[in-house]
Amino acid sequence: MDVENLQSILREYSIKPSVHRIKILEYLLKHRTHPTVDHIYRQLAPQIPTFSKTTVYNTLTLFEEKGLVKSIAIPDNQLRYDLYEKPHAHFRCRECREIMDIPMDFDVPLLDKDNFEVSSVQVFYSGLCDKCAD
User: Fold this and answer.
1) pLDDT for 101 beyond 90
2) Residue 133 — φ and ψ, nearest 5°?
3) Mean model confidence pLDDT for the chain
4) pLDDT at 134
5) pTM for this structure?
6) Which DSSP category does 114 fall into?
7) Domains of the chain
8) Class of residue 59 by CB neighbours under 10 A (exposed 0-12, middle 13-18, buried 19+)
9) What pLDDT does residue 99 have?
10) Structure letter (DSSP) for residue 131
């Protein structure tokens, strides 16, 4: 994806494009691995001398506030980030530790409570992936 398209995506979410923001978005689009702040930092720091973990964290926080990404809390793991395109669940293999997106073909029941405002729902599965189950 070229820089103009990345800038357009950021503007669509009311995010002012910058070199750091463009690089982080590009990384998230190319690598659907549910990365941590540390992982993104290690991958991009050699390319950008002014990069810091704080920049990555602050950028991902902004992306989440604007609805571009979702943070996912995987039990016994660091906070990870996922581009939010459509509702889906997550599966973590207990053997290889890979985290995968699982399409959700069902509706999650909404709370039927007065004065509750649900802002996020996370569905998480754990077990053995098809590669590790063999």
Assistant:
1) no
2) -75, -25
3) 87
4) 82
5) 0.79
6) T
7) 3-82 (1.10.10.10), 86-133 (3.30.1490.190)
8) buried
9) 84
10) H
